[in-house]
Fold this protein.
Amino acid sequence: MTFQQLKYIIKIVECGSITEAAKQLFITQPSLSTAVKELEKELGIEIFNRSTKGISLTIDGTEFLSYARQIIEQTELMEQHYLGKKPSKQLCSISTQHYAFAVNAFVELLLGLDVDEYEFTLRETRTYEIIEDVKNLRSEIGIIYFSDFNERVLNKLLKENHLVFNPLFEADPHVFVSSKHPLAKNASVTLEDLDNYPFLAFEQGEYNSFYFSEEILSTVPRKKTIHVSDRATLFNLLIGLNGYTICSGVLSSDLNGDNIISVPLITDEKMRIGWIASEKSHLSLLALDYIAKLKNLICKYGYNIE
């Protein structure tokens, strides 16, 4: 086993295919495939599942990748300390439901870096795709929420994919509305108060199940519903149509301005927001730093960390 082989595996996972990894590594696809097979034979494990749809990490492969990343990371730190070697490009990938605090923490992570080069990815995406991203280690961690309604189904899906949910905080549901909305000055609102206003929800694509909805109380019948795919469109519609959406209540005026406000929703439901990761993965220093910044931000908003 060599450092080069470890880097090969990491690059294949980053690219999602051996063909693309070979292009970026400037070697032939057969040479890269052979190197992977030789490593698998040496270790006595299969690192990748291979099918007509492409490749994905096996359970053993997931564990191996986490060790490989640690070894490369620690080796580079030693080379920087003792040999004065320039740090390599920093890599980190996060998948999340549409939460302002997740973006805030990402911004703080980047602002705190003292490196010349980095390549980070922040995916605000659908619930099922977050789980797929983390399962296949396209992202180190994903941010989702549990409720009494979806927890059993989502937990089952996480266990089937060898993923673990780590709680961050529990939130009382709020609604986001325009600061000029007729209900904006209310101390709190009920679903009945909102009945005549358009409800905005993030569409979930092919896996359009109530269990994957980002909005709690998703099964409540509504007169008007609009599905959107991104946060900017949702906020524009909140303002333009006097719509509303249901959320955790954590809103950043630094990133979103003062046109959108958060109003408590009267309900017994709770949102338990947390991060998911592979049960066998060992998170990188960057991922751990991101989680620390998440927790710090959440505390600043007045929530207790679980």
Remarks:
- The chain has a mean pLDDT of 90.
- Residues 1-88 form a domain with the Arc Repressor Mutant, subunit A fold (CATH 1.10.10.10).
- The two ends are 40 Å apart (CA to CA).
- Residues 75 and 230 are 39 Å apart (CA to CA).
